[in-house]
Design a protein that fits this description.
- Pfam families: 5-FTHF_cyc-lig (PF01812).
- This protein is of the alpha/beta class.
- It has six helices and eleven strands.
- It has a seven-stranded mixed sheet with strand order 3-2-1-6-9-10-11, with helices on both faces.
- β10 and β11 form a beta hairpin.
- α2 runs parallel beside α4.
- The longest helix is centred in the first third of the chain and has 52 residues.
- It is globular and about 60 Å long.
- The termini are far apart.
- 27% of the residues are buried.
- About 2% of the residues have low confidence.
């Protein structure tokens, strides 16, 4: 079949327009994705601000009472009773469920406890997951409740963090991943939680990053349990919706004081 010059010209014009149209649609799709991501980030920021204001109204006694109830709820969980190693965290100086009572419960039940320390990514030549990443979480074991209570505050958030412990050769002996140890449970903090076990973090992405690193190393995750105050549970009745992004990790359970929500 022979093509006339006119037919060839029409073909190439249509072909070119198809390419231009396809490229335009792809650009528009990418712009819409970026716009959607920006919208979600703005919604998350607004929700953090809303929850923070709600928690700020709580008295110290209210926080302690909720903490004691949460520790009792955790101690009754079958998964906790069967666990040997637990990842926990020391709470922020304000605006968060106090965790001292939960740490105490862990040691009372003879659990091996690991706490996070924000560590410069250059210290152990950890792999960056994104270009501007400067620090990650290293979970370090502690020996007892007294050690937990005497930990120094570090960083801009003033969180009590554990020390790296080394043997005579200088090798770190209490780092979870460096020593190829696993967690049975990882308790995860957050700004807000849903009954469907969705979590809104503080925005730094430390826990999402650690969970992904753990999963890459062991091809599994520990049981992920969120811990929160009653005021941190989002309700549809109040029109509160948590918009998740692709990198956000879903939890297995959420403990809100005396209530346990499960995704399974």
């Amino acid at each position: 079949m022979k093509w006339s010059k006119r037919s060839l010209t029409i073909f190439w014009v249509l072909h070119s327009w198809h390419g231009i149209l396809k490229s335009t649609l792809l650009r528009r799709e990418n712009i819409m994705k970026l716009t959607s991501m920006d919208t979600i980030k703005n919604l998350k920021w607004a929700l953090r601000k809303q929850i923070k204001a709600r928690i700020a109204k709580l008295s110290h006694d209210t926080l302690l009472k909720q903490s004691i109830l949460a520790a009792k709820t955790i101690s009754d969980l079958p998964e906790f009773k069967n666990a040997k190693t637990v990842g926990l965290y020391m709470n922020l100086p304000s605006g968060e469920l106090p965790t001292d009572e939960i740490v105490k419960t862990c040691f009372n039940f003879d659990k091996k406890v690991y706490l996070p320390r924000v560590t410069a990514i250059s210290r152990f030549n950890d792999t960056k997951r994104f270009e501007k990443q400067k620090s990650i979480l290293h979970f370090l074991s502690i020996d007892n409740l007294s050690e937990a209570r005497s930990l120094p505050e570090r960083g801009r958030y003033k969180i009590r963090e554990p020390e790296f412990k080394s043997d005579d050769s200088g090798s770190v002996v209490n780092d979870l991943l460096q020593n190829n140890e696993k967690l049975d449970i990882l308790f995860v903090p957050g700004m807000a939680f849903s009954s469907g076990c969705e979590r809104l973090g503080h925005g730094a992405g430390y826990y999402d990053d650690f969970i992904k690193r753990y999963n890459e190393k062991y091809h599994e995750k520990p049981l992920l349990i969120g811990l929160g105050l009653k005021e941190q549970l989002l309700t549809k009745e109040n029109g509160e919706v948590l918009h998740m992004e692709e990198h956000d990790e879903l939890l297995d359970n959420v403990v809100i004081v005396d209530t346990v929500y499960s995704r399974r």
